[in-house]
Every structure is written in C-alpha cells, then in structure tokens.
Amino acid sequence: MSRIPSWVKVLTAAALTVGLAVLLGLKVGQAVGAGKARATEERRADARDQATAAFVEEFECVNIGDTLPDHEFEDLQRNTVMLSDLLRQPRTLLVFYLPGCTDCVTEFEQLGQTLDNERDWSCFILVSPGNPRLAEDERDEYGLICPILYDHRAAFTRNELRIHAFPFNVLVDQNRTVIDITVGPLDRSDFLKIISSNSEA
Known about the structure:
Blueprint: H1 6-59, E1 72-75, E2 80-82, H2 83-86, E3 92-96, H3 102-114, H4 118-121, E4 124-128, H5 132-142, E5 148-150, H6 155-160, E6 168-172, E7 178-183, H7 188-200
Parallel strand pairs: 3-4, 4-5
Antiparallel strand pairs: 1-2, 1-5, 3-6, 6-7
C-alpha cells in the first residue's frame, strides 16, 4: 500500500478547515441576517403601533374592545348586505380605503399576491365610501375576490367610526368586537397571521 505524502495530508486538512469555516460563516451570516430582518420588522411594527395609537387618540376613532354597529352596506352587485352576515370567520379584517389611495393600492397588491383560495379571501372585507365604479376597477386589476362594500356618504366610515386616514385596518371577531386596528398598509406577513389564527380556531 502506498503512503500518502505528508504535504497532501496538510493540504487536505487545510481544505477541510476552510470549507468548514465557509459553511459555518454562511450559517452564521444567515442567522445574523435573519436576526436583523426580525429586528427591522419589530421596529416597523412598533412604529406602526405608535402611529396608530396617536391617530386613535387624536381623532377618538374606533378602538380595540369596541363593538361595531351592524351596518347596512351595498355590495358591487348593488345588493344590500349586513355586516354581521359577512363575518363568518373567527377573525375578519375590515380594510377601509379610498379608491386611488397609494397606500391602499400597496395593500391591495399584497393581498392579491398572498391569497389564493376562497377560504382565505373570506377573512377579508373591503369597505369604501368612494365611487363603486372605481372599486370595480381595483377589484379587477388586483384580483380581489373578497366582499367589497360601498359605504354611502361615509355614514359608517366617518360618522360611526371616525376614520379619516386610509387604509385603516380593523380586525374583528364574529360578534363585531374589535381585536386590533392598524393605520397604514398591512403586508403579506400580517395577512398570513390572520389566516393562520382562523385555521387554528
């Protein structure tokens, strides 16, 4: 049996050491990157919560723990619907928006890219005091298949709930009790949390 030269052994050991270091470096780098991403997300969520709290205090609008009135709306097919009839999931997100609002469009894009089945869409309802024809255009453009309700003269949005910023997200249970609110656009991770909580309920 031929002997392996010592210099080959040294090179092999060095190569293994470098390879292991690179692998560990990648793992550590991934962990650090994930940690930074989580920290960034937490800071963003904190800033969003602070902005929401300031807005609620300033305008005395709907807040966590409130029970929404059972309002009558018109859907895009011109049917009259009651809010309570649409709350079929343990948690439903009501997205109050204005047609053409930039942040609203951002949220619509995220919704359209995240949801892919009827059950998931049933966790979301869009409410707008804006022109129903514009709502139809946005429904088609972003593939929105959740209920879209027209709030005539903003009777519910502004008069009842005192909402003056859009998008304004209100998470409610089946009894119309407010679980959470957020001023500003939500994203994929927020939507998936709602869907997941309903699946576990």
